[in-house]
Amino acid sequence: MKHFKTILFVAALFIGSTSFMNAQSKVAHINTQELVESMPKMKAAQGELEKLAKTYEVSIQEMATEYQNKVKQYDAEASTKTDEENQKRIAEVSGMQQSIGAYQKQAQEDLQKKEAELLKPIYEEARVAIQKVAKAQGYNYVLDAMSGQGVLYADGKDLLADVKKELGF
């Protein structure tokens, strides 16, 4: 019985100290997506990505126009050509179509790579600024309130304005 009382006393002490420690934790929240989207560097990166995408789009459109013109030409001339010539033309057109598909795939991969290359330092800068502001204001935890994912209720301070100020905008 004496051991049981000791265990109960230790458990009560543990629960009390845990509650006290939890009460001391300061929690804030921030919508990192909103922060990153409002950063001037993000706007510049988006502009660069749009410019690159437009370049690829123009190239793909030119290739598609060339492909369509060849198909029309070959269809119009098919009756005047031998079967062997028509087979070669079909193979050429098929090769052009595959080339367009491969270029589209490569363009998409290049855009994704460029996006990752441009956005990584922006997200890192935002993360560092959030940490700096949270530490300066004595917050133990900062929750990401991006579109309400994972945060059902936020009663802590919103650090968005403070982090924007830290970043200089």
Brief descriptors of the model:
mainly alpha; 169 residues; Protein Binding, DinI Protein, Chain A; 3 strands; rod-shaped
Structure report:
- The longest helix has 54 residues, at 83-136.
- The chain has one domain: Skp domain (Protein Binding, DinI Protein, Chain A, 2-Layer Sandwich), CATH 3.30.910.20.
- The model has no long low-confidence stretch (mean pLDDT 85).
- It starts with a helix and ends with a helix.
- The chain is rod-shaped and about 90 Å long.
- With 169 residues, the chain is mainly α.
- It has helices spanning 2-24, 32-38, 40-77, 83-136, 160-167; strands spanning 27-30, 141-144, 157-158.
- The protein has a three-stranded parallel sheet with strand order 2-1-3, with helices on one face.
In short:
The chain has 169 residues and is mainly alpha-helical. The protein has helices at 2-24, 32-38, 40-77, 83-136, 160-167; strands at 27-30, 141-144, 157-158.
Please identify which CATH superfamily we are dealing with. Skp domain
The largest beta-sheet arranges its strands as: 2-1-3
Total domain count: 1
Number of strands: 3
Number of helices: 5
**Main sheet, how many strands, which sense, barrel?**
3 strands, parallel
How would you summarize the topology of this molecule?
Layout: H1 2-24, E1 27-30, H2 32-38, H3 40-77, H4 83-136, E2 141-144, E3 157-158, H5 160-167
Parallel strand pairs: 1-2, 1-3
